[in-house]
Write a structure and sequence with these properties.
- With 629 residues, the protein is an alpha+beta fold.
- It is built from 22 helices and 27 strands.
- It has four domains: 52 residues, no CATH class; 217 residues, Isoleucyl-tRNA Synthetase, domain 2 (Alpha-Beta Complex); 74 residues, no CATH class; 105 residues, no CATH class.
- The strands form eight sheets. Strands 10-8-9-6-5-13 form a six-stranded mixed beta sheet. A five-stranded antiparallel beta sheet has the order 19-18-22-21-20.
- The chain binds zinc ion (2 copies).
Length: 629
């Protein structure tokens, strides 16, 4: 049975849908294997089934569990945060990829311009513009472009405003007087009153005392006021900036898009209905300058079309360790023991990189990389083996290293799970006991980052957990080969990181990377750009030998420029002269009824050992230049 046969896999998929517990028998390399469909699918790629490796296979999953357990034992696994696009109707996170492919609509929102009054400056305020008024509830900072020019303007309403010079005409209507011009840099550190400092949760986090003007290179003056309100709990860029400046992240929304407890009059209101009341409240407090309709491309849910919001969510990370500000040779043993980053570098040293610059690209990534986020908000995939305590006053979590350990520690739900692959929903039924407080612990709902699957192959496919001598026989790989854009921080990285944690050994002797392919206009091929050439079309029009020559002749570390002009040139300079040599020979050999001696046909390597050569002045003259190419 061929496990790579799509028809066989489709048949199993259908049977899984029908009833995952029905019994099937399949032919393995050592004879028939019988079990439930779910069991058989979970064993795909294992020795008794044969065939390729499947990331969802049970062995693959438990190998990653063992890796994560090791990481946790070392104290490198932690719960952190990230801000992600979220559909409040579907109550689920949406990946950046789903937004890029499917997820924008042209929408019009009411965008307010708001006064942020400055401390110790009577009747002076920053003018701040936002397209998402609900995020004002969680404001922490205001960002200016350090290099931009800002104007100080006396307006007719009695206020003096600060805003970017380039936005003045659009923003301030009616008469005004420019009092001063300053660089954004001069405003850094100014303290101001936030728009919702009266909200209990904002006060509880001491945010009113933290409001400051900060610098951000990305602030422009193409729209808005050139002063950007920053709410690290409500936006991806805000969150990043918040990390840089060590700002607190206030998370105002529940999973279904309602304001949480502690948000005063806003609590329980839906994020998508709250804008008019927010404007009214700001107006009452004397903070609202103006509201304008604003039309923009806004991300929406690809399932239901609901406009997305950004939500602060729990995510799980592997701590990559300190990046010390000194040369590697000065890192002490104890510093290295603390920092996975430097342990990975030692393993990278042992690998041969082709082309050579791969080594420095990987090192560059290792020096600058942040912690590895291993969780993903999805229903199905590698079930992360992290159990958290059910007691709300206990924040303990534990990592389970495999099936045996889970069985041993289970206090509930093992019978429901037994016989299933470690996926949702069954694995979620198993509870374990919290060693800190005695309460039950429940598995987190997240699944694993797919690079965990890709990074474990040097172990999961070689029976590392079950047959160590088999693994030793094949480990490490002689060579791995992959197109390098992106891989220094994806596959090469995850593969080497996981191998460092498991065994402190390189998973491969050689990492062989090659560049990518572009169209003749120097851009990636895209159907919509009209520069894509399909394989069949190319084979038909330029000939497969020409294509083989183009690929075979390519320098690995350079991008292959592929198209009909290149093909014509290759044909003119190489393929046609080669063909002429051959045709000349065949024609005259045919006329002379010459055929090569049998000994030469049986063993062409003896050609140089005194057998008659067929040569001609033209082929002699042409061959050096042809062969040079
Ligand atoms: Zn939705
Ligand atoms: Zn506990």
């Amino acid at each position: 049975m061929d496990w790579n046969d799509p028809d066989v896999l489709r048949d199993l998929a259908d049977k899984l849908l029908e009833d995952p517990q029905q019994t099937v028998t399949v032919e393995g390399p050592d004879g028939p294997v019988t079990g439930s469909v779910e069991y058989v699918v979970g064993r795909l790629g294992m020795p008794e089934m044969g065939g390729s490796y499947f990331t969802f296979a049970t062995e693959n999953n438990y190998t990653i569990w063992a890796f994560l357990k090791k990481v946790w034992k070392k104290g490198w696994l932690y719960r952190g945060h990230d801000v992600m696009p979220w559909c409040p109707r579907c109550e689920t996170g949406i990946s950046q990829h789903e937004i890029v492919t499917d997820g924008y609509q042209q929408l019009t929102h009411d965008a307010p311009i708001v006064r942020f009054p400055l401390h110790e400056r009577e009747k002076e305020a920053l003018l701040v513009w936002t397209t998402t008024p609900w995020t004002l509830t969680s404001n922490v900072a205001a960002a200016v472009g350090p290099e931009l020019t800002y104007v100080k303007v006396k307006a007719r309403d009695g206020w003096t405003y600060y805003l970017a010079e380039g936005t003045l005409d659009e923003v301030v209507k009616g008469e005004y007087k420019v009092l001063d011009r300053i660089k954004g840099e001069a405003m850094l550190g100014w303290a101001y009153d936030g728009p919702f400092d009266d909200i209990p949760r904002v006060q509880a986090m001491s945010i009113p005392a933290m409001h400051r003007v900060i610098g951000w290179e990305d602030v422009g003056e193409e729209e808005g006021t050139g002063i950007v309100h920053i709410a690290p709990g409500c936006g991806a860029e805000d969150f990043e900036l918040g990390q840089e400046y060590d700002l607190p992240a206030l998370a105002p929304l529940t999973e279904d898009g309602l304001f949480k407890e502690g948000f005063g009059w806003l609590t329980g209101k839906h994020v998508h209905n709250v804008a008019p009341e927010i404007f009214h409240d700001l107006e009452k407090k004397g903070r609202l300058y103006r509201v304008d309709p604003y039309t923009h491309r806004y991300p929406v849910c690809w399932r239901c079309g609901t406009p997305l919001v950004f939500r602060l969510v729990d995510e799980w990370f592997i701590d990559m360790g300190e990046s010390y500000d000194k040369p590697r040779e000065d890192i002490t043993d104890s510093e290295k023991a603390e920092s996975l980053r430097y342990q990975i570098m030692d393993v990278v040293d042992e690998i041969q990189w082709i082309p050579e610059f791969g080594y420095s690209r990987e090192m560059d990534w290792l020096r600058n990389m942040q912690d590895w986020m291993i969780s993903k908000k999805r229903y199905w995939g590698l079930a992360l083996p992290i159990w958290v305590c059910d007691n709300p006053n206990c924040d303990h979590f534990q990592v389970v290293g495999g099936e045996e350990e889970l069985k041993e520690r289970s206090v509930e739900g093992w019978n429901e799970f037994e016989g299933h692959t470690p996926h949702r929903p069954y694995v979620d039924t198993v509870k374990i006991q919290c060693p800190e407080c005695g309460a039950t612990m429940t598995r987190i709902e997240d699944v694993g980052n797919p690079w965990l699957d890709a990074g474990s192959v040097a172990y999961s496919t070689l029976q590392y957990r079950t047959n160590r001598s088999y693994w030793e026989r094949w480990f490490p790989a002689e060579l791995i080969s992959e197109s390098f854009p992106g891989q220094f921080r994806n596959w090469f990285y995850s593969l080497i990181t996981m191998s460092t944690v498991y065994e402190n050994r390189p998973p491969t002797k050689i990492v062989h990377g090659y560049s990518t392919l572009y169209a003749e206009d120097g851009r990636p091929m895209h159907k919509s750009w009209g520069n894509a050439i399909w394989f069949d079309e190319a084979a038909e029009n330029m000939g497969v030998d020409t294509m083989r020559w183009l690929y075979g002749n390519q320098k690995l570390d350079q991008n292959l420029i592929f198209g009909y002009e290149r093909a014509d040139e290759a044909r003119r300079r190489f393929i046609i002269p080669l063909w002429n040599v051959y045709a000349f020979f065949v024609t005259y050999a045919g006329i002379d009824k010459w055929r090569p001696p049998d000994s030469l046909i049986d063993n062409p390597a003896t050609l140089d050992e005194g057998h008659p050569h067929v040569s001609d002045p033209w082929t002699d003259a042409a061959s050096p230049t042809v062969l040079d190419r």
